[in-house]
Amino acid sequence: MQTLLQNLLNGIAVGAIYALIALGYTMVYGILKLINFAHGDVFMLGAFVGYYSGRWAAAHFGDQAGSGMSWVIFAGIMLLAMIACGLFGYFNETVAYRPLRSAPRIASLITAIGVSFFLEYGGQFTFGPDPKFFPTLIEKHLIHVGGITTTNYQMIVLVVAVAFMALLQYIVYGTKFGRAMRAVSFNYEIASLMGIPTDRIISMTFVLGSSLAAVAGILYGLSYPKIDPLMGIMPGLKAFIAAVLGGIGNVPGAVVGGLIIGIIESFVGGSRFSNFRDAIAFILLIGILLFRPSGLFGKYEAEKV
Amino acid sequence: MTTGERRAASSEREGSGKSPLARMPWWIRDLISLAIFIAILIGLSYGLERIPIIGMAYYNRIIVMIGINITLAVSLNIINGHAGQFSLGHAGFMAVGAYFAAYLTVFHFGPIVDKLVEGSNYAWIAQNALLLTAVLAGGLLAAIAGYIVGLPSLRLRGDYLAIVTLGFGEIIRVMILNIDKIGAARGLSGIPTWSNFFWVYFFCGLTILISMRLVNSSVGRAFLAVREDQVAAEAMGVDATKYKVKAFIIGSFLAGVAGGLFAHYTPAYLNPTMFMFVRSFEVVAMVVLGGLGSISGSIVAAIILTFLPEGLRMAKGVLHMTKDPRMVIYSIMLIVLMLTRPQGLLGRRELWDVLARRKDTIPEDPRDEGSSPTDKLDRDAGPPIQ
With an 8 Å Cβ cutoff, are A294 and B327 in contact? Predict the structure, then answer.
């Protein structure tokens, strides 16, 4: 029972990070029908912005771990990473995807792969290919509840992730921008006829998704302090699976999918099949897609002739 | 243009005239051209080994890698370009072929050849025959994998199919990682280096030939029909399911063969990380950059994208950099190439059509030049944000 709860908790903590990345995938897919393969690498970029700004902060403010100042620094670093990744997302969209808006969709898929390669190789070029250790921004505590052990890091991950998901939910369903976003995703052409500045909405969607990936990058760096330029590949892929699992284009679906993938991975990692941890997400995906071809919450659209 | 294409292109052109070649059955023509092709290959493989340039082994390796990548790109083009099924699992099929062929030679065929006198004619014959067997066996197992992977394409479309094939590729890789007999994470080393220029380009030419014959056959026409409009194709009596799975089987067989040849080429070492989905992306980039559905386009793009990272090795010296920027430049060039030619280098036409200015033979697809967001691919896409 204790191991069960422990695995569940660990799974939820990882799953929350996957969910944050998955939200970016699902929004971009919903609006452009584009699998933005560079998204996992934006997550890496966020972690590296956190790494460098964290080191800068440590050099200028001294070791603040444990004091109230550490929270301010943590929030500042997260904001910085969000701004940096948001800017990257904006330029990524304008340079690599916007010129291809009227081209076959597959062309933008290849530029997405190109941008992904650019971030991976560019990361190896500028940051160096060797792993780096994410600075300890906040002092780590162990928390014992019942028989299970958790850390304050896991709590931070959960609280921050849930806060940002709630914020996103509000943006998508409660603001004018969110309504415009849903309109564009519903029908690009008609939305533009209705006076919605589609290009700006699409750019903002990228900014939104990329800054969520930055948050995920910081949280990931906090929980698993070893970061390297290729760290975005696997979490990015799993987050993408999470988005597909929940029904791609569906915001709550991405969150549920992320949590499912995180929890199942955590259980498999704790079992004797732990070697198959990286494959289990795919097996689950294939299993679900065979029975529900558009994911758990996706609406299946019958093809009209 | 490779020899294989030129040969096929010329036979095509002769087909419209009334030369004696045109009156022969197609298979005799193919056999004759195959014989000429083999003769040229033998000549080239002798010549390439004897060019007295320092570092010729390195250039030979690039040439062989180009051949393997052409095989991969042309075979993926059958699935993605002709049949219109978006597969991202090609590295997985390649891995199946590579590992199974290497398993056969390392554990079964290698000892047989070792017993024979080294350098004798028997050893030479046995080695090449066994390589052929191993490579074809690898291809067959990959074809079985392709059949299994092709099955979900009965239900899934567009991006969902893409992600499932990607998933199958990764599952294959993780499975290999867990089979200790073939090295698991350590990788498989000690594979005999039997593969060479001749075999790689022999299968490369064969792949191109199969691909070209396929497009003009009833099967290929069915592929095109399914690609253009599956519902209409089914209404006309094309068994879409059957042809989709067929495309997967043919494509993955050829990818498995390419994998087997890759496994036996120096340094003859396999590691599961070589077959990550990033490798599939590279092949997809070749196919799309060349122009989906264009065989010669895939070939040209495979040559460019294989040569580019090697050719950029000099960039470090030219730019006076301490680190090697070649892969960064490579990725930027990939983006720029795609932005300048969104429909691919050749669109859907073939190189010989472009060279002969025969625009009328295969019309440029209207979708290639700017299309509405309601094109076919978008119909395959999922629902909007809810």
Answer: no
Contact A181 B377 (CB under 8 A): no
User: What are the CA-CA distances from residue B278 to residues A47, A157, B166, B298, B302 (Å)?
Assistant: 21, 29, 10, 18, 15
Distance of CA A211 to the CA centre of its chain: 9
Q: What is the CATH number of the domain that holds A81?
A: 1.10.3470
Binary contact (B338, A172; C-beta < 8 A): no
B210: contact with A, CB 8 A cutoff: no
Torsion of CA B333, B263, A238, A10, to 10 degrees: -130
- For chain B, the straight-line distance linking the first and the last C-alpha, in angstroms and rounded, comes to 49
Q: How far apart are CA A194 and CA A303, in angstroms?
A: 26
Q: Are B259 and B93 spatial neighbours (Cβ–Cβ below 8 Å)?
A: yes
Query: What does the CA dihedral B333, B335, B338, B339 come to, rounded to 10 degrees?
Result: -110
The domain spans of chain B are 3-360
Say how far apart CA B94 and CA B207 lie, in whole Å.
Answer: 14
Range of the domain at A100: 2-291
Question: Does the residue A101 lie in any domain?
Answer: yes
Whether residues A104 and B375 touch (CB distance < 8 A) is answered with yes
The residues, any chain, with a CB within 8 Å of residue A79's CB and separated by 6 or more, are: none
ipTM: 0.89
Tell me the DSSP string of A15-79: HHHHHHHHHHHHHHHHHH----TTHHHHHHHHHHHHHHHHHHHHHHH---TTSTHHHHHHHHHHH
- Residue spans of beta strands (DSSP E) within chain A: 132-133, 142-145, 148-151, 226-227
Cβ–Cβ below 8 Å for A289 and B383: no
Closest residue by Cα to residue A258 from A148, A168, A144: A168
Question: What is the CATH topology of the domain spanning B3-360?
Answer: ABC transporter involved in vitamin B12 uptake, BtuC (1.10.3470)
DSSP H stretches of helix in B107-239: 110-115, 121-150, 158-177, 197-215, 218-228, 230-235
User: Do residues A284 and B151 lie in contact, with contact meaning Cβ atoms separated by under 8 Å?
Assistant: no
> Mean pLDDT for each 10-residue chunk of chain B (386 residues)?
49 54 78 88 85 82 93 94 90 94 90 81 87 94 92 76 88 90 86 89 92 90 90 89 91 95 89 90 92 91 91 81 84 91 83 68 46 40 47
Structurally, chain A folds into a number of domains equal to 1
pLDDT tens figures, A82-141: 999 999 999 999 999 999 888 888 888 889 999 999 999 999 999 988 999 988 878 888
Does A301 have pLDDT greater than 80? no
Would you say residue A299 lies in a domain?
A: no
For residues B346 and B292, what is the distance between their CA atoms, to the nearest angstrom?
Answer: 9
> B interface mutation test: which of A25, A35, A105, A171 has the most B CBs within 10 A?
A105
The Cα A101–Cα A32 span in angstroms is 9
Q: Which of B180, B284, B386 to mutate to test the interface with A (most CBs of A within 10 A)?
A: B386
A106/B288 CB distance under 8 A: yes
Chain A nearest-CA residue for B162: A35
Note whether residue A184 is domain-resident: yes
Q: A297 lies in a domain? A: no
Place of tokens 């990033």: B278
Helix (H, G, I), strand (E, B) or coil at A11: helix
Q: What is the pTM of this model?
A: 0.86
* Residue B71 tokens, joined: 């095989």
Q: Cα separations (Å) of A279 from A11, A258, A261, A291, A305?
A: 16, 15, 11, 19, 37
> What pLDDT shows up at residue B350?
81
